[in-house]
Amino acid sequence: MTTRDATVPGTPCWADLSTSDVEGSRRFYAELFGWEPLAPNPDFGGYFNFSRNGAWVAGGMGDMGEDKADDTWKPYLATSDIEKTLAAAQGAGGHVLVPPVPVADLGVLGMLQDPSGAIAGLWQAGSWPGSEVVGEPGTPSWFELHTPDLGAAVAFYRELFGYDAISVSDTEEFRYSSLRLPGDDTDIAGVYEDSSLVGGNEAPHWEIYWEVEDVDAGVATVESLGGRVLEGASSTPYGRIASVTDPHGARFKLRSTPA
């Protein structure tokens, strides 16, 4: 098991699920990924965590008062100064959805909406850095923004974290860039220009890829548990990938990285 005790500012460090069916989702993801759903914490509005081999790998929450769950997965990006990052987001045309909120001694969270409407969390670590396990089955393996305007999205997130954007493809059919921290050649997230979002029913959003040992078996499990397959398993240069939803419509991807 690969563990970490710190996350670099600008890198994805956590993911959580907003679900309209807390108990159903806890059962679904436990069966799919072998996670242990920990008890909801009443001190934090019923927020709960999933663990793997004793380490937290993801979080979840149901309705929070008048804020109804929207059945989506959302990423959190690490920051060393959450107030500065949220101010930068607002100055660059985004919106602050949740101002800085201390979470005991674990850290401080916030939520932003970029100019296209995609939502992401921010996390300023205290005693807890975020996801403690990486690079293993049942942990996030990639984070990807789906947006109708790649250039505007890159400019916005560069304002927050100083990312370098590396063009993977720039054609009418497929525009995609990977994001890197300055001076680092490691890809940390992707930006996909999704033309289907223009005038469509779906809003811009982040998608999370979850590592699995066998994508085809994962797809079969999703279907057997009442989820839906959006795009069946296919082999790509970046691994075998499938796009699915849980029974309540929260979408995500399954991925087995190349050996």
Task: Write a concise synopsis of the structure shown.
The protein is α+β, with helices and mostly antiparallel strands and 259 residues long. It has helices at residues 22-33, 82-91, 150-161, 215-224; strands at residues 2-3, 12-18, 36-37, 48-52, 55-61, 72-78, 95-103, 107-113, 119-125, 133-134, 140-147, 164-170, 175-180, 189-193, 205-211, 228-236, 239-245, 251-256. The strands form three sheets. Strands 3-4-5-2-6-9-8-7 form an eight-stranded mixed sheet, covered by helices on one side. Strands 12-13-14-11-15-18-17-16 form an eight-stranded mixed sheet.
Could you explain how this protein is built, in words?
It is a single chain. It is built from 4 helices and 18 strands. α2 (82-91) runs antiparallel to α3. It has 259 residues and is of the alpha+beta class. The chain has 2 domains: 7-131, 2,3-Dihydroxybiphenyl 1,2-Dioxygenase, domain 1; 134-256, 2,3-Dihydroxybiphenyl 1,2-Dioxygenase, domain 1 (Roll), CATH 3.10.180.
First and last CA, distance: 17 Å
Q: CATH homologous superfamily of the largest domain? A: 2,3-Dihydroxybiphenyl 1,2-Dioxygenase, domain 1
The helix/strand series, from N terminus to C terminus, equals EEHEEEEHEEEEEHEEEEHEEE
Q: At CATH's second level, what is the architecture of the largest domain?
A: Roll
Strand order of the largest sheet: 3-4-5-2-6-9-8-7
- Mass-distribution shape: globular
**Beta fraction:** 35-45%
Proportion of helical residues: 10-25%
Number of domains: 2
Strand element count: 18
Sheet bearing the most strands, described?
A: 8 strands, mixed
Over the alpha carbons, how many angstroms does the gyration radius reach? 17 Å
